Amino acid sequence: MKVAIVGAGLAGRLLAWRLVQHCRDTDQPIAVTLCDRQSRSFMGTGRIAAAMVAPFTEAVTTESTTRELGVVSWRLWQKWLPQLEAATGHKVEFNQQGTLVVAHPADLPDWQRFQQKAQADTPPEAMQYWSQSELQQQEPELSHAFRQAMYFPEEGVIDNDSFYKALDTWLDSTQEVTWHEGMECGELSSTGEATRGYLKACDEQFDYVFDCRGNDAREDQSELRSVRGEVVRVHAPEVNLTRAIRLTHPRYPLYIAPRPNHHYVIGATTLESDDDSPVTVRSALELLSALYSLNTGFSEARIQFLQAGLRPAFNDNLPRIVREEQLIRINGLFRHGYLFAPALVDEVIQSLC
């Protein structure tokens, strides 16, 4: 089987890896051409994202499909990442310590609404209530500012730096994948012969072509829109948070994703915009003010970067797999790339093989 994957972001690279691995496991021949108009070092959303795998807390404010896909992805990450580590010798940090949802006393009504919705939609074993004393025991640096928390144990955070390093090593080492960087790709129209003419620099014929271009596919998928997200990454040696944190707030709900060695990725903003210019002063002030209110130890943190990215989304903010003969489109992952991508990739592969 010969396939082309157009778009080498998170979904494209993940698909190339898992498709080759599946064909190896089932003794099927496979040749993958992976191409993208950017170089592999491009700071796309998969690289700057918080990379949270949070099916239950995300589902509180979205559809149940988010939780269903997220639970599948959570289990796949638990299975796949050890395989990637074994194959490459690179450690991929996967924090599986769960998520805490907290709120300052003045914002308790927002926290209570979140709690009511979570209790209605979350299995009892996937959610716990922590008192201030339990916070003191489990996450002591939060107990001075918060009286209670919701704890979701079956959630986590992937260190995307170590993940991309391991995945790129695997893709470079396998003979089944040919990776073209900086290749402009033509429109992926399904009219005419579905497997010809899609790669301007390749005249090969493919059994399947996968469109994983995200926002770059808007010419072919007019219903796609862009959603801007802004994040800051800091190094805070004085802060010791072990779990992902969500701070409920009426204006700027905040999430903090811990990384190894006292690094943290913080995000909040979700803006309906095609603007991919740098982070605004207002957004930066709101992010950093909320961060300081969570833990005063962040006052001496060093800012490593402030970045913005555009995420592709459909009107319902849910992903889609669209099959048009041999052309298969995977898109609309919104701000849930790490939450949706494994489930979608596995679904596509199972439908083919």
UniProtKB/TrEMBL annotation:
Task: Specify the signal sequence span.
Answer: none
Q: Which InterPro entries match?
A: DAO, FAD-dep_OxRdtase, FAD/NAD-bd_sf
Using the record's annotation, list all stretches that form the FAD dependent oxidoreductase domain: 2-344
The catalytic activity of this protein is classed by the Enzyme Commission as: 1.4.3.3
Q: Give the matching Pfam families.
A: DAO
The GO biological-process annotations, alphabetized, read as: D-amino acid metabolic process
Broad class of enzyme this protein falls into: oxidoreductase
Entries under PANTHER family matching the protein: D-AMINO ACID OXIDASE, D-ASPARTATE OXIDASE
Protein name per Swiss-Prot or TrEMBL: D-amino-acid oxidase
Q: What is the lineage of its organism?
A: Bacteria, Pseudomonadati, Pseudomonadota, Gammaproteobacteria, Thiotrichales
